[in-house]
Amino acid sequence: MNKKKIIVPLTLLLAAAFYFVFFYKNKTLQFVPGNANAVVLIDVKKLTGQYILSFMAHPSKWTESKTKDKKTVSLQNSGIKTPDFLQIFHLKDTKFSEWYSVVELKDPQKFSAYLKGHQFVNQGKNVFRKDQIFVKIQGGNGIVGTSASAFEKIGQWLSSEKKILNADRFINKSLGSISFISGQKIQNFSIELKMDEIEIKNTSETGSLAFIAADIQKKNRFLDVELDARNVKNYASLLNKNLVDSAQISYFRATADLERVNDTIISYGYDDNFNEIEKKTVQKIIQPKYIIDIQSSASEKAWEYFQHKKWINAQNQFTAIPFQPNTIEQNNSGFIIKSTRKPIALSPKIKENYIFVRNSPMLVSSLSILSTTEKKLFTDIEYVFYGNKAQSYWVKIKAKKGELPLILRW
């Protein structure tokens, strides 16, 4: 038989298989509820391709899989049907920290075994939990969330007739996207994973914002913030919908550093004669030193609002900030809130909108709620920057430089 007659169709067959495995995508989104107000999409095939290229370029990772515990079932063999787009969503009228995703299951029993093998605790009614991750198995689907409070509603939605969406409405050639939905309006931001950073943005022009980030980074502060009225309103709406309207905040600026201080704990006990004795214990705690400038177009009204909320006590301390002691002072334009232990100065006003948070070993050590894996991820971050100029938004999560790219480290 002529070898050329075999090679040509075989090459075409392999090319077609390669296309369907790595490039063809089903853009139908079945798992985004109608009452979702934010959606995160991850292009699984693009992520897989990026991982393979990075893996091939770093031989040190090739032998690592041989040292892993062979008893541990991998996600690939967990009974989950791998989607072309991972769909993560946030529902209206739920806490900002509550995010959910639904995956199809090829084998629910295999998925259940996978969860048990990874130390998820069965809480009954097919609900499993490990740390802050909750999973519910419902028929041929798995519901995953940072909370279990909406599982029942999501389960009811899965059993009803669903509106099918298309991925092109949310993502355009990027590795991922985050989209905010308000009625018929959808605002999309691309997500890109680079060598040692993650970018989330709605613009390709980030030069001026990058300049701001580089300049602020030199100040070596733990926290620097400057926001105008629009940005304050956007952020305050995540925490307190009435705050901006009631206090009429028009500007916010803050600077903070961390320090390790001695904290004295006083307790009482009894001696052998049943006399009450005082016991003092000194421990090291992490506490910020900070100064905050809040400007309001109606400072008297804002002061009354703070008092109504009982955020100002008799000692003129702003109790809405849990780190004490501090003082709040009213001036013509608004308020100054500052810690009293070791006062610091505000960073110079640059009339830009940004939030800059620098990672710190002290911060990581104080986050006891994080698991070992989460602490490892957290430790790897160098800083997080948010910048806004007109209608351009940019978030940069910068990791420490390492021998491996983020996709192989995380």
Detail the topology: elements first, then pairings:
Blueprint: H1 3-22, E1 28-29, E2 36-43, H2 44-56, E3 85-91, E4 100-104, H3 108-117, E5 121-122, E6 127-130, E7 133-138, E8 141-145, H4 151-158, E9 165-166, E10 176-182, E11 185-193, E12 197-201, H5 207-217, E13 223-228, H6 229-239, H7 243-247, E14 249-270, E15 276-296, H8 299-308, E16 326-330, E17 334-339, E18 353-358, H9 361-366, H10 372-380, E19 381-389, E20 392-399, H11 406-409
Antiparallel strand pairs: 1-9, 2-3, 2-10, 3-4, 4-8, 5-6, 6-7, 7-8, 10-11, 11-12, 12-20, 13-14, 13-18, 14-15, 15-17, 16-17, 18-19, 19-20
Which structural traits does this protein have?
410 residues, alpha+beta, 18-stranded antiparallel sheet, two-stranded antiparallel sheet
Fold and architecture overview:
It contains 11 helices and 20 strands. The chain is an alpha+beta fold. It has 2 domains: 158 residues, no CATH class; 218 residues, no CATH class. The protein has an 18-stranded antiparallel β-sheet, sandwiched between helices. Strands 1-9 form a two-stranded antiparallel ribbon. The longest helix is centred in the first third of the chain and has 20 residues. The radius of gyration is 26 Å and the shape is globular. The chain starts with a helix and ends with a helix. The model has no long low-confidence stretch (mean pLDDT 86).
